[in-house]
Amino acid sequence: MALTRALALVALFAGRAAAQQCVETPRQVALAEQTPLGFSAADVLANVGGAATLDLKWLPRSMYATHGRATTTTELWIAFAPQKASVTFVDSKGGGCIGGHGPCVSCTPRLEISVEARFYSGDGALGEDQRVTLVTSSVKWAKFALDVGSAAIAGTLLREVAPDPGYEVIGLHIEASFGTGFPGSRRTVPGVWNGFVAARVRQTGRPKMRGVYTAHGYFPARTAP
């Protein structure tokens, strides 16, 4: 009987947990189409998609590597090509808190805007033309995260990163939020992209390891910790 009761409790908990999961329905929408969020992707890009010039501050030595740009500051240019954007509206329903208390799952409808982007720095460390996905549930902000493998890097940053013994460089990471903060930022600068760029390294001989960030640069410089 105890086993039966335990199995019943497991089934009940699993059922409640499943009920808290998000049910997501994606569909393609036109750039100028008004979505259930009350705005279009074109509206978002009008606010966040303009070309920008920011100051990029490279931090001193990071864990796992040294890099030649450490402690320097350079200009960073970010630009998007909205005319080549593709847009997905993701309807997300469900969520809630198990037992009314937790753990909790929040399901938020959102736009995912795939757009070509350019990231160039005055010191030559970045010279990247990549496609990013801007994710947002508001017309006033968006965020993206980009990982690029070593073979696809055009700038010089990775050539200037010297990993510690036992580590190897595997790529580049760029992450930013428009007008909002991001993990590790000291402050938020309103009305611009706030973010960081970093090399990715992993332990040598561990190809399944996603990697860790090192050789950080923050933009604008005021966001640096």
Keywords:
single chain, 13 strands, mainly beta, nine-stranded antiparallel beta sheet
Outline the structure in words.
The protein is mainly beta. The chain has helices at residues 2-20, 41-48; strands at residues 22-29, 52-58, 65-67, 73-94, 96-97, 104-105, 110-121, 127-136, 143-149, 161-163, 167-178, 193-203, 212-219. Strands 1, 2, 4, 7, 8, 9, 11, 12 and 13 form a 9-stranded antiparallel beta sheet that branches. Strand 7 and strand 8 (127-136) form a beta hairpin.
Percent strand: over 45%
Gyration radius over CA: 21 Å
Shape: globular
**Helix and strand string, N-terminal first?**
HEHEEEEEEEEEEEE
| Share of residues in helices | 10-25%
**Roughly what is the average pLDDT, rounded to an integer?**
90
Q: Can you describe this structure in just a few lines?
A:
The chain is mainly beta. Helices cover 12% and strands 48% of the residues.
Write the layout of secondary structure elements.
Elements: H1 2-20, E1 22-29, H2 41-48, E2 52-58, E3 65-67, E4 73-94, E5 96-97, E6 104-105, E7 110-121, E8 127-136, E9 143-149, E10 161-163, E11 167-178, E12 193-203, E13 212-219
Antiparallel strand pairs: 1-4, 2-4, 2-13, 3-10, 4-7, 5-6, 7-8, 9-11, 11-12, 12-13
